């Protein structure tokens, strides 16, 4: 019975239309639509659509930023309603992200954080120029499932290896997964340093994190 | 109309003094050497205006040249098929399109070089209609299955039916030109409408600067009388029909250009004549091929046309290479770039290979990409307050991210993005098939042809046009 509304929600994200996202969220509350349904069947599929368009080159980075903005606008309306109903959006996983020590580049890392949190992950962003021990401490403090390590320079990407080694030394591997990214980073490099995954872009990072969480769930059940 | 202005400091291969010197040389040639004009009406018009004549030989005095240059129009606007202004040929602008009459097509599906068909012609015109950075159409190919004497009527019918973009038309004999113009008049709704909002310009190649053929001159007189725009393009080839030097051939060729200007303005003051933006070139004396991408004469004819302030027709985007490869991409890029920064205005021959003998739709798609790139590289830069975004810079400070600002979200599409050139990462390029530019161009041609539906003519208009083709066939005894 809410098909039209859910379609309008998807469209508001695809269009990056904050006003439409806010309006459809308010309409959901007025009409009694479960906010979790609105998120999972309305806004999130819109975001996935934008993500796939970005991956295929049909949409641009600012389109994705607009979509994330619209997503946040909808969430701002729905969060109080979730609290009122004593509901919580299920957290798909906890991710600690940061740019390695000696590197102050942040655009790619921020984008990964935006996409992960819009997709239902809980993201702790440590910022830039992050020492390996801060990654370890934060992962422990926040019970992270995944640590995401960004590096833009060939001279700083070796820091990704140090983070993997530091987590291992702290006895947190392989429970805590490590994903790496950045312009010079390749799949081969990720394998060489013993990371659990690499993605070329922020959309791929969401897919990668989702896959790693499913793997972890499978392992826990097994 | 597209903003086709070329920004920045003008590039001019000839200085104003050098242009004046070439002009003086051309005037002197007309006074001393004169020219043979094989159409008696042209000789008579010049004789009555004060030129000395001896049979078909004419010596044109400076005063006639000066008077004609004073009345020749400085700007000509070509319209599209719907009557909307599409290209203003004036100033430092750059408009791009294909060439005409290739004898072969390099089939983008099979890679085979073969005789073109009517279907190839129609596909090519649909492609020109679809490609965003090509501004006008020409006849592309000579279709092999129709009689050569009336192939120009078939080409005109295909162009009128297949695109709304302006047409640069080539015909063989004056009768073919008259038929083609008659077809355009049907579309426009009569001669007055076509003259007021012309969407066809007739390309007239002139045999030699000082030896001008009968049909060329007849076309000029007929078009000038009616006020229809035409391109008056004498061909002088350095080392054979002109001096081997660029300057020498350019000056001699210019004498032939001036004859056309004088004649057209004597027939009708303000007759819309377009002069060459190319000239001074020559045969390759090693292979006897007429090269389309030679560097020597690139620029001076355009500088000369700008010096006069006359509308011009340029030549770039063609290659002497045989296939779509590194040579063809390099030659298309280099020639288009020089002509664009020269402000070459109406620029034809995108998609030519083999020195104009072969046409390729893939090469045409690559030229469209190159033109698009060049436009982004030469258009004026916006330095308004809004563009500088100083308030954003102040607000965001040293570490701010501009990615999420409204300024970025509003204006990011002003930057150029490729349709064919690959900018992905190595892994993404590999994942998409590790293609070359030529492969992607062929794919784009297929995708555009599959998706694009040119706006058709009204059925009764199309029928009337086809009757003109049929009548020409009957008249030719076919």
Task: Give an overview in words.
- The complex is a heterodimer of chains A (222) and B (478).
- Chain A is an alpha/beta fold and 222 residues long.
- In chain A, 59% of the residues lie in helices and 10% in strands.
- Chain A has nine helices and five strands, in the order H-H-H-H-E-H-E-H-E-H-E-H-E-H.
- In chain A, helix 5 packs across helix 9.
- Chain A starts with a helix and ends with a helix.
- Helix content of chain B is 45%, strand content 13%.
- Chain B has helices at residues 16-32, 40-49, 62-71, 118-130, 151-162, 174-188, 191-196, 214-226, 246-267, 300-308, 326-341, 361-378, 385-388, 390-396, 406-411, 426-431, 437-451, 459-475; strands spanning 35-37, 52-54, 57-59, 76-79, 85-89, 94-98, 104-106, 113-114, 167-169, 200-206, 211-212, 230-234, 273-276, 312-315, 345-350, 352-353, 358-359.
- In chain B, the strands form four sheets. Chain B has a seven-stranded parallel beta sheet with strand order 6-15-14-13-12-10-9. Chain B has a four-stranded mixed beta sheet with strand order 2-3-1-11.
- The chains are: A alpha/beta (222), B alpha/beta (478).
- The interface between A and B is medium-sized, with 14 and 12 residues.
What are the defining features of this structure?
heterodimer, A: 222 residues, alpha/beta, 5-stranded parallel beta sheet, 9 helices, B: 478 residues, 7-stranded parallel beta sheet
Strand order of the largest sheet of chain A: 2-1-3-4-5
Order of helices and strands of chain A: HHHHEHEHEHEHEH
Q: Count of helical segments of chain B?
A: 18
How much of the sequence of chain B is in beta strands? 5-15%
Share of helix among residues of chain A? 55-70%
Helical coverage of chain B, percent range: 40-55%
Low-pLDDT segments, ≥5 res of chain B: none
> From the helix content, strand content and strand pairing of chain B, which structural class follows?
alpha/beta
Q: How many whole angstroms does the radius of gyration of chain B measure?
A: 23 Å
> Overall mean pLDDT score of chain A?
91
Q: The biggest beta sheet of chain B, please?
A: 7 strands, parallel
Low-confidence stretches of chain A: none
Mean residue pLDDT of chain B? 96
Give the N-to-C terminal Cα separation of chain A.
39 Å
Largest interface: A-B, 14 and 12 residues
Question: So what's the oligomer here?
Answer: heterodimer
End-to-end Cα distance of chain B, whole Å, is 42 Å
Morphology call of chain B: globular
| Total of helices of chain A | 9
């Amino acid at each position: 019975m809410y098909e039209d509304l859910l379609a309008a929600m998807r469209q508001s994200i695809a269009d990056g239309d904050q006003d439409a996202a806010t309006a459809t969220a308010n309409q959901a509350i007025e009409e009694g639509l479960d906010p979790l349904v609105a998120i999972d069947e309305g806004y999130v599929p819109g975001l996935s659509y934008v993500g796939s368009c970005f991956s295929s080159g049909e949409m641009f980075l600012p389109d994705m930023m607009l979509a994330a903005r619209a997503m946040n606008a909808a969430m701002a309306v729905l969060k109080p309603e979730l609290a009122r109903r004593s509901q919580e959006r299920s957290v798909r996983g906890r991710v600690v992200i940061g740019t390695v020590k000696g590197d102050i580049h942040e655009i790619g890392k921020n984008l990964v954080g935006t996409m992960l949190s819009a997709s239902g992950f809980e993201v702790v962003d440590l910022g830039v120029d992050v020492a390996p021990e801060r990654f370890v401490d934060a992962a422990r403090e926040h019970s992270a499932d995944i640590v995401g390590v960004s590096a833009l320079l060939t001279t700083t990407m070796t820091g990704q290896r140090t983070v993997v080694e530091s987590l291992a030394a702290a006895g947190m591997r392989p429970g805590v997964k490590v994903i790496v990214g950045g312009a010079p980073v390749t799949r081969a490099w990720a394998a060489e340093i013993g990371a659990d995954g690499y993605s070329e872009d922020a959309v791929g990072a969401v897919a990668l994190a989702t896959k790693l969480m499913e793997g972890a769930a499978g392992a826990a059940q097994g | 109309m597209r903003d086709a202005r070329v920004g920045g400091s003008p590039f001019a291969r000839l200085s104003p003094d050098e242009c004046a010197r070439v002009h003086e040389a051309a005037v002197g040639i007309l006074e001393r050497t004169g020219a043979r004009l094989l159409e008696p009406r042209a000789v008579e018009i010049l004789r009555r205006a004060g030129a000395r004549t001896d049979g078909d030989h004419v010596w044109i005095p400076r005063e006639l040249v000066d008077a004609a240059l004073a009345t020749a129009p400085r700007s000509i606007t070509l319209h599209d098929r719907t009557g909307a202004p599409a290209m203003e040929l004036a100033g430092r602008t750059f408009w791009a399109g294909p060439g005409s009459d290739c004898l072969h097509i390099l089939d983008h599906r099979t890679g085979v070089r073969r005789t073109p068909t009517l279907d190839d012609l129609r596909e090519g015109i649909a492609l020109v209609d679809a490609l965003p950075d090509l501004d006008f159409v020409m006849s592309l190919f000579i279709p092999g299955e129709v009689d050569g004497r009336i192939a120009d009527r078939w080409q005109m019918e295909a162009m009128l039916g297949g695109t709304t973009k302006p047409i640069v038309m080539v015909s063989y004999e004056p009768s073919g030109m008259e038929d083609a113009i008659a077809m355009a008049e049907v579309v426009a709704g009569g001669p007055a409408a076509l003259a007021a909002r012309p969407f066809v310009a007739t390309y007239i190649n002139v045999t030699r600067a000082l030896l001008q053929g009968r049909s060329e001159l007849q076309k000029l007189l007929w078009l000038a009388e009616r006020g229809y725009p035409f391109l008056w393009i004498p061909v002088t080839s350095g080392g054979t029909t002109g001096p081997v030097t660029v300057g020498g051939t350019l000056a001699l060729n210019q004498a032939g250009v001036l004859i056309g200007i004088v004649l057209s303005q004597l027939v009708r003051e303000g007759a819309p004549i377009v002069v060459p933006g190319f000239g001074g070139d020559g045969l390759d004396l090693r292979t006897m091929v007429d090269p389309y991408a030679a560097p020597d004469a690139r620029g001076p004819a355009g500088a000369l046309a700008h010096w006069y302030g006359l509308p011009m027709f340029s030549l770039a985007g063609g290659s002497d290479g045989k296939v779509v490869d590194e040579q063809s991409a390099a030659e298309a890029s280099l020639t288009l770039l020089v002509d664009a920064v020269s402000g070459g205005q109406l620029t034809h021959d995108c998609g030519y290979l083999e020195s104009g003998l072969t046409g390729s739709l893939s090469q045409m798609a690559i030229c469209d990409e190159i033109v698009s790139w060049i436009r982004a590289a030469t258009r004026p830069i916006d330095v308004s307050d809004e563009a500088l975004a100083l308030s954003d810079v102040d607000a965001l400070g040293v570490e701010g991210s501009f990615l999420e600002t409204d300024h970025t979200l509003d204006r990011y599409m002003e930057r150029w993005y490729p349709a064919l050139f690959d900018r992905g990462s190595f892994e993404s390029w590999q994942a998409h098939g590790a293609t070359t530019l030529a492969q992607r161009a062929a794919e784009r041609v297929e995708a555009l042809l599959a998706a694009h539906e040119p706006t058709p003519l009204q059925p009764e208009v199309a029928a009337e046009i086809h009757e003109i083709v049929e009548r020409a066939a009957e008249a030719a005894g076919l």
